[in-house]
Amino acid sequence: MTKIIELTVKTGERTQMIDITGDILKLVQNSGISHGLCHVYCPHTTAGITINENADPTVITDMLNTLNKLIPVDKSYLHREGNSDAHIKAALIGASETLFIQNGTLRLGTWQGIYFCEFDGPRNRRVWIKLST
Ligand code: ZN
User: Fold this and answer.
1) Over pLDDT 90: what percentage of the chain?
2) Is 69 exposed, middle or buried (0-12, 13-18, 19+ CB in 10 A)?
3) pLDDT at 75 > cutoff 90
4) Within a 13 Å sphere around the CA of 24, how many CA atoms are in the beta-carbon half?
5) At the topology level of CATH, where does 2-132 sit?
6) How many other C-beta atoms lie within 10 A of the C-beta of residue 37?
7) Residue 30 above 90 pLDDT?
8) Ligand 1 center to residue 41 CA distance, Å?
9) 128 C-alpha to ligand 1 centroid (Å)
10) Ligand 1 centroid to 23 CA: how many Å?
11) Hey, where are the domains in the chain?
12) pTM for the predicted model, two decimal places
């Protein structure tokens, strides 16, 4: 059994998607695991993890603009903390992804990257990673 590794992510905007593929790839390559699974988990209720295109940065801009249009910051939500939009966005994106480790590296699609999705930043955030054979 491998232990859970914690990554820290410092976000700079209220809504933001940060490419963490390189950080996770380093952990996989340093783990000595040739074949297995890489679980990436976000332990926050107003942030999430997703996999999407990391070739054209306008895709991320379009995703964030669309999420903000569909789920605006709106004062009519009941939740007193005032960040219901962030909770809803986080629920839609999801808290985790599971990736394949093959030949000591991550097997991702050609255009895919792993993103930490901030919806109530800026904050210091954590990502938990577990690698298994
Ligand atoms: Zn809240």
Assistant:
1) 96
2) exposed
3) no
4) 31
5) Jelly Rolls (2.60.120)
6) 13
7) yes
8) 19
9) 21
10) 28
11) 2-132
12) 0.96
